[in-house]
Amino acid sequence: MHDPHSSHDLCSDHGGEYPTVWDLPIPAGLKQQWLELETRRHFLGRAGKALGWAGLASILGKSVPSVLANVGGGRDLRPHFAPKAKRAIYLFMAGAPSQLDTWDYKPGLTSMFDQDLPESVRGGQALTGMTAGQARLPIAPSLFKFKQHGKSGTWVSELFPWTAKLVDDLTIVKSLHTDAINHEPAILLINTGNMFAGKPSLGSWLSYGIGAINEELPTFVVLTSKMPWTKNVQALSNRLWSSGFLSPEYSGIALRAGGEPVLHLTDPKGVTSDVRRAMIDGVNDLNHQLFERVGDPETNARIAQYEMAFRMQTSVPDLVDFSNEPASTWDLYGPKAKEPGTFAYNCLMARRLAERGVRYTQIFLRSWDTHTTLPAGLRVLAEDSDRPTYGLITDLKRRGLLDDTLVMWGGEFGRTVYSQGGLKVDDYGRDHHPRCFTMWMAGGGMKPGISYGETDDFSYNVVKNPLHIRDLHATILHQFGLDHNQLTSKFQGLDQKLTGVVPAKVIKDLIG
Q1: What is the full DSSP assignment across 293-350?
Q2: Taking a C-beta distance cutoff of 8 angstroms, is the pair 224, 256 a contact?
Q3: How many CB atoms lie within 10 A of CB 130?
């Protein structure tokens, strides 16, 4: 049985904590009978597929190998239609940045300081336990100044002077909304399309759907950044980059900032590369024999991971060697880029991963959960992330990579217009708000220099062009040439997909 929450170490055996048929107290004769039945079932399944491919090859006048050239695990890994994006970099601001203080400018709130939020605006929305007991919901206008930037005249908070230079490259969505009001389900929903753990993440679906670009590195890489602000920190775990019920080969691989980027890649003392190669060949031979006897596809996933680990022994050291980066790189990303594990370092790493063909890179930056002391927290977080974000997009653009690299920035939901707890002119906090929030995208065939959707005067309700997370996922997959209704995997008797069972649509107005 496959545990969707287990850690997928590249060089570990994925036997998991659950018993297999070998561990159960089954009489030898019965166990042998089960094996024979399993072998027969898998043989017939493989034979049927083989005959089908042979028939197709005869019809098309091609050899079976050429027909199978783009097929992995019995699936055609080609996109459903011509893609506009080849790779993605998701800058995930865990904890949920306040849209009111960053991208959704509401100047009319200045004159409403400390007034009660009208009940007609709230519309009976349920509140979290953190503000449900407040006697009042006082309006807290943003403390930060906004200015218009670029040819598009986009309003941007003073918190992001560097990113503001890029507004004509950005596709800003102000009308995103979600079903979850608390962090755990919300962060799962935007990463996996489901509020319950155990489902494949967006990066895993892309890996499953169109495969790798570079066989020397993982298809899906995760980078977790050091926190410059440590209040209200949300926990992260591999539930957010798990492959769920898909094969573990589609899981995200988390690169560590210190020591070995991936554990167990380095050969032990006294073990040469040739010895390691021979050892892996021996283990793989045993796994091939096991697959022929039992037919469990997870066995092939284990073989693939051993092979990937061996290849990464040479590719990863080169990846993390920044010695050849010119002075202009450090000028672009800022001085913190030289400190492993910082957001700036991870943005530079994301560029290096992109140019080496990694399909999906996700960078997490936590601590945006500003229930209290929001002005102080946002200043620190914005200063830590603004210049590296600018550096990443500018670097990709200079290298000709932005056109087919989709960069995304945002969190799991928005923040309330009313203050949580006490309200001062220079200090306030904001609670969770699922009804509207802002994210932006750049490159990857998105339409640059636009703002999509509108919220009301309180940034509380969407009043134009609402965009649910399901629609966001459908649109992202579309940019990779994937129809979200066709990208499915059978699990528990259902054709599972990232966008779930509720209808989702591709937002064509966002596409260039």
Answers
A1: HH--HHHHHHHHHHHHHHHHHHHHHHHT--TT--HHHHHHH-GGGGSTTSHHHHHHHH
A2: no
A3: 14
pLDDT beyond 50 at 16: no
* 223 half-sphere exposure, CB direction, 13 A CA radius: 27
* 409 sits in which H/E element: strand 405-410
Residues 330-363 as b or e (16 or more Cβ within 10 Å = b) = bebbbebbeebbbbbbbbbbbbbbbbeebbbbbb
Q: In this structure, are residues 186 and 434 in contact, taking their beta carbons and an 8 Å threshold? A: yes
79-261+320-510 architecture in CATH? 3-Layer(aba) Sandwich (3.40)
Alpha-carbon distance of 500 to 468, in angstroms, equals 12
Beta bridge partners of 91: 363, 409
Cα 220 from Cα 360, distance rounded (Å):
5
The per-residue pLDDT for range 178-235, each reduced to its tens digit, is: 999 999 999 999 999 999 999 999 999 999 999 999 888 899 999 999 999 988 888 8
Which amino acid is located at 102 in the chain?
A: T
Residue 44 is which amino acid? L
- The one-letter amino acid code at 96 reads A
Q: Do β-strands 154-157 and 253-254 pair in parallel, antiparallel, or remain unpaired?
A: unpaired
**Which phi-psi region, left, alpha or beta, contains residue 74 (left: φ > 0; alpha: ψ -120 to 50)?**
left
> Cβ of 124: how many Cβ atoms within 10 Å?
6
Is the model's pLDDT at 165 over the cut of 90?
yes
Are 371 and 253 in contact by the 8 Å Cβ rule? The answer is: no
Mean pLDDT of the chain: 86
Q: What is the pLDDT of residues 87-113, one digit of tens each?
A: 999 999 999 999 999 999 999 999 999
- pLDDT on residue 75: 62
Question: Domain-by-domain residue ranges, the chain?
Answer: 21-69, 79-261+320-510
- Largest pairwise CA distance in the chain: 82
Q: Round to the nearest angstrom and report the end-to-end CA distance of the chain.
A: 44
What is the average per-residue pLDDT within 448-457? 98
SS3 146: strand
